[in-house]
């Protein structure tokens, strides 16, 4: 109630309805944004150039009796480290890392997947160089040379990059 000493308080009033001109302006902005996004998608190169699997194979063994043998998991980890050191981080994605078959063994196998982005040829060359360097680092760390045998099998880690 309003009295002489207290005038009525103003109530909240909703904004006036938008006119067709306002709606057209909003729709115009949306069409411009959609057109810009479509143009960037059509003119940008494909993001994913190639997806590959990198597999490692080594002699493996029990962690007690075969201490010092090369490990396929260690070689794979060294390869990923070399990729991080030598390749642009935006040019690849590593996923699906796995290997070995028990907690107390030296892994005889390891695998991971790599999605290469951008130039497929350059990416594949950089990946191959990084993986080779990682494998060589593990073989060097364990003192293994090409042709060395351990338990009648090759002592060195080998790798395959496949689509």
TrEMBL record:
Q: Name one Pfam family in it.
A: M20_dimer
Q: Which InterPro entries does UniProt cross-reference here? A: Bact_exopeptidase_dim_dom, Peptidase_M20_dimer
Q: Which domain of life is it from?
A: Bacteria
Q: What residues does the Peptidase M20 dimerisation domain cover?
A: 51-132
User: Which terms does the record give in the GO molecular function aspect?
Assistant: hydrolase activity
- SUPFAM superfamilies recorded for this chain? Bacterial exopeptidase dimerisation domain
Region annotation (Disordered) ranges:
1-23
> What name does this protein carry?
Peptidase M20 dimerisation domain-containing protein
């Amino acid at each position: 109630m309003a009295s002489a000493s207290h005038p009525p308080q103003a109530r909240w009033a909703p904004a006036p309805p938008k006119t067709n001109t306002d709606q057209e302006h909003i729709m115009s902005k949306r069409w411009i944004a959609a057109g810009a996004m479509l143009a960037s998608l059509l003119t940008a190169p494909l993001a994913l150039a190639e997806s590959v699997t990198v597999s490692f194979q080594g002699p493996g063994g029990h962690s007690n009796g075969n201490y010092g043998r090369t490990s396929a998991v260690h070689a794979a980890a060294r390869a990923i480290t070399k990729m991080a050191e030598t390749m642009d981080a935006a040019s690849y994605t590593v996923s699906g890392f796995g290997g070995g078959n028990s907690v107390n063994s030296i892994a005889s196998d390891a695998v991971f997947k790599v999605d290469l982005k951008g130039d497929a040829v350059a990416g594949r060359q950089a990946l191959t160089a990084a993986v080779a360097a990682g494998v060589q680092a593990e073989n060097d760390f364990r003192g293994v040379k090409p042709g060395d045998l351990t338990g009648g099998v090759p002592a060195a880690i080998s790798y395959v990059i496949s689509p």
